[in-house]
C-alpha cells in the first residue's frame, strides 16, 4: 500500500492547486467548476446465475484518475473478481459517452473503495483537493450554511442539481461526521461552504428516516431511507487520508490484526470510580487464541485506557470508542508495535503489542458453484469459526455462499451461511476435499446427497434430492 501523511496539510493543499479567489463567485459558477471532480460509476456484479448493474457516485482524488466510493457502494458479499465492466460517466453528459475504469480495492482504515479511470478517460477530471479549504481540517460550525451536488438517474443523463442546508450536528462516530437539517448532497457527492471550499462527502442515510404504514399488513411499519440524497456527511478530514492509502491489491492487504473478540465501553460511573476523568476505557471480554493481543499479554477483563500514551476520548454513544480503537489499529502495518495502557486490578500496565497479518477473509476465500445441486460453497475462514464461537484453529467444512431458488439444495432447506461439515457421511477436513466429494456426488447418479449442516449452533441432516 502506498503511504504518505495520513493528515492532509495546507502545504499539500497548495500543491494541489487550492486558490481561495473563488470565494466571491456565484454558486452556479462554483457548482459548474466543481462538477469536474464528480463522476458516476457504473459496474456489474457477476453472480452464479446472472449479473446486476449498479450505479454509485464517486469523487476524484488525484491527477491519476483515482476515484473514491463510499464503503456501502459495493456489497460486502461481492468479491473483487465478481466486479466487472466499470464505466465512468460525467454529470450531464450523454450516457453514450463514458470512460472505462478498473477496480483497485478497498482500504480497511478509511473503508473507501478505489477505482482508477483509464488514461484515455481522464481528460477534464480535477481532484477534489483543488477545492480544499485553507485549513483542510476545519470543522463547520453548527448552523453554518453548506451546499452540495446531487445527481439524477441515468435516464436523465445524471443531470446535476443544487442542494443546500445548515449544519445541525457534528459528531465522531468515530469518523468525523456532520448531520444537516435536510438533504445536502447526493450519496458520495461533495459538499462545500459558501466560498466553494470542499467540506465533506454525502454519506448514506443519516437523519433521513421516515415512518410509514405498510400496505401489506395493517399497523405494520417500515423504515425507508432516501437512496439518492443524504443529510449526513463525512467531513473532508476523513477524505484526505485516502490520498495516501490507495491499495496495492484488490483485498487491501497488508491488513493488520489485533485479535480481540469483544470490547465493551466503560460506563461513566465506572470511569469516575477508576479516576479516568474526561477519558474512558474499554473492557476486554474475550481474546482469540494465538492472537497478537493474547501473545502481547492482554487478559480478559483488562481495561484498556490509552493507546501509545494517548487516552481514549469520551465519545457519544460510548460504543463508538471500540470502533475508534480498531480504526487506530487499521492505520498501522502488520509487524508494527503499539503500546496499550491497561488497568488490571487497579494497577496500570504498559503492554507492547506486535500486530500480526489478518487471517484470510471471506472475500479472499476460494469458492465453487455446483450447478446440479444449486449451491456455491466457499472455504471456511477464520472469521466464520469465530462468529460461531468455535475453535479458530479448526477450519473444517465449507460455507454455503449461495443457494439457487427451487434447486435441490434450496428445496432441501439449505440456507446461505450454513456450515457443511459432512458430505455423504464423510467429514470434510478441507475445501479441496469438499470439492471432490460434491463432484463425485454429482457424477455418481445417486438420488440424494446427505449433508451434516451446522446452523445457529445446532446440527442437522439435510437430504438433497438430486434431479435425475
Question: Which helices and strands occur, and which strands form pairs?
Answer:
Elements: H1 10-15, H2 27-34, E1 38-46, E2 51-60, E3 66-69, E4 83-89, E5 99-106, E6 113-117, E7 145-151, E8 160-172, E9 176-180, E10 185-186, E11 190-193, E12 198-203, E13 209-213, E14 221-225, E15 229-230, E16 232-235, E17 256-257, E18 263-265, H3 268-273, E19 279-280, E20 282-284, H4 292-295, E21 303-307, E22 310-313, H5 320-330, E23 337-344, E24 347-354, E25 356-357, E26 367-370, E27 375-379, H6 382-387, E28 398-403, H7 408-412, E29 419-423, E30 426-427, H8 431-444, E31 448-455, E32 458-465
Antiparallel strand pairs: 1-2, 1-4, 2-3, 3-6, 4-5, 5-6, 7-8, 7-11, 8-9, 9-16, 10-15, 11-12, 12-16, 13-14, 17-25, 18-20, 19-22, 20-21, 21-22, 21-23, 23-24, 26-27, 27-28, 28-29, 29-30, 29-31, 31-32
Q: Mind explaining what this structure looks like?
A:
It is a single chain. The chain has helices at 10-15, 27-34, 268-273, 292-295, 320-330, 382-387, 408-412, 431-444, and strands spanning 38-46, 51-60, 66-69, 83-89, 99-106, 113-117, 145-151, 160-172, 176-180, 185-186, 190-193, 198-203, 209-213, 221-225, 229-230, 232-235, 256-257, 263-265, 279-280, 282-284, 303-307, 310-313, 337-344, 347-354, 356-357, 367-370, 375-379, 398-403, 419-423, 426-427, 448-455, 458-465. The strands form 7 sheets. Strands 18, 19, 20, 21, 22, 23 and 24 form a 7-stranded antiparallel beta sheet that branches. Strands 26, 27, 28, 29, 30, 31 and 32 form a 7-stranded antiparallel beta sheet that branches. Mean pLDDT is 90; it is low at 4-24 and 207-215. The protein folds into 3 domains: 1-253, Thrombin, subunit H (Beta Barrel), CATH 2.40.10; 256-357, Pdz3 Domain, CATH 2.30.42; 362-465, PDZ domain (Pdz3 Domain, Roll). The chain contains 8 helices and 32 strands. It has 468 residues and is mainly β. The termini are far apart. The protein is flat and about 75 Å long.
Amino acid at each position: 500500500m502506498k503511504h504518505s501523511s495520513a493528515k492532509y496539510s495546507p502545504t499539500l493543499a497548495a500543491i494541489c492547486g487550492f486558490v481561495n479567489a473563488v470565494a466571491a463567485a456565484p454558486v452556479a459558477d462554483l457548482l459548474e467548476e466543481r462538477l469536474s471532480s464528480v463522476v458516476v460509476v457504473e459496474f456489474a456484479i457477476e453472480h452464479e446465475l446472472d449479473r446486476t448493474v449498479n450505479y454509485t457516485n464517486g469523487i476524484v482524488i488525484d491527477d491519476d484518475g483515482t476515484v473514491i466510493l463510499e464503503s456501502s457502494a459495493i456489497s460486502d458479499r461481492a468479491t473483487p473478481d465478481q466486479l466487472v465492466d466499470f464505466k465512468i460517466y460525467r454529470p450531464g453528459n450523454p450516457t453514450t459517452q463514458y470512460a472505462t475504469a478498473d477496480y483497485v480495492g478497498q482500504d480497511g482504515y478509511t473503508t473507501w473503495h478505489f477505482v482508477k479511470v483509464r488514461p484515455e478517460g481522464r481528460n477534464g477530471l480535477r481532484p477534489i483537493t483543488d477545492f480544499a479549504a485553507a485549513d483542510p481540517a476545519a470543522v463547520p460550525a453548527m448552523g453554518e450554511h453548506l451546499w452540495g451536488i446531487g445527481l439524477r438517474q441515468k435516464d436523465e443523463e445524471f443531470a446535476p442539481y443544487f442542494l443546500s442546508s445548515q449544519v445541525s450536528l457534528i459528531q465522531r462516530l468515530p469518523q468525523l461526521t456532520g448531520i444537516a437539517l435536510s438533504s445536502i448532497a447526493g450519496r458520495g457527492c461533495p459538499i462545500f461552504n459558501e466560498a466553494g471550499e470542499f467540506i465533506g462527502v454525502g454519506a448514506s442515510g443519516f437523519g433521513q428516516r421516515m415512518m410509514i404504514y405498510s400496505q401489506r399488513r395493517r399497523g405494520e411499519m417500515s423504515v425507508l431511507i432516501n437512496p439518492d440524497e443524504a443529510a449526513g456527511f463525512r467531513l473532508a478530514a476523513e477524505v484526505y487520508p485516502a490520498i495516501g492509502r490507495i491499495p496495492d491489491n484488490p483485498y487491501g492487504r497488508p491488513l493488520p490484526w489485533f485479535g480481540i473478540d469483544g470490547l465493551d465501553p466503560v460506563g461513566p460511573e465506572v470511569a469516575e470510580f477508576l479516576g479516568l476523568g474526561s477519558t474512558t476505557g474499554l473492557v476486554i471480554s474475550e481474546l482469540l487464541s494465538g492472537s497478537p493481543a493474547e501473545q502481547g499479554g492482554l487478559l480478559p477483563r483488562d481495561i484498556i485506557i490509552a493507546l501509545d500514551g494517548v487516552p481514549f476520548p469520551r465519545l457519544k454513544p460510548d460504543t463508538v470508542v471500540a470502533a475508534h480503537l480498531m480504526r487506530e489499529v487499521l492505520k498501522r502495518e502488520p509487524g508494527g508495535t503499539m503500546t496499550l495502557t491497561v488497568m488490571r486490578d487497579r494497577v496500570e500496565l504498559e503492554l507492547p503489542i506486535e500486530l500480526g497479518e489478518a487471517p484470510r477473509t471471506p472475500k479472499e476465500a476460494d469458492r465453487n458453484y455446483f450447478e446440479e445441486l444449486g449451491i456455491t460453497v466457499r472455504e471456511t475462514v477464520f472469521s466464520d469459526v469465530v462468529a460461531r464461537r468455535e475453535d479458530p484453529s479448526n477450519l473444517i467444512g465449507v460455507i454455503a455462499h449461495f443457494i439457487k431458488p427451487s434447486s435441490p439444495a434450496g428445496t432441501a432447506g439449505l440456507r446461505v451461511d450454513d456450515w457443511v461439515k459432512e458430505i455423504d457421511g464423510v467429514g470434510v477436513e478441507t475445501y479441496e476435499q469438499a470439492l471432490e466429494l460434491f463432484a463425485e456426488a454429482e457424477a455418481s447418479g445417486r438420488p440424494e446427497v446427505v449433508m451434516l449442516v451446522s446452523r445457529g449452533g445446532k446440527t442437522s441432516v439435510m437430504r438433497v434430492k438430486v434431479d435425475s
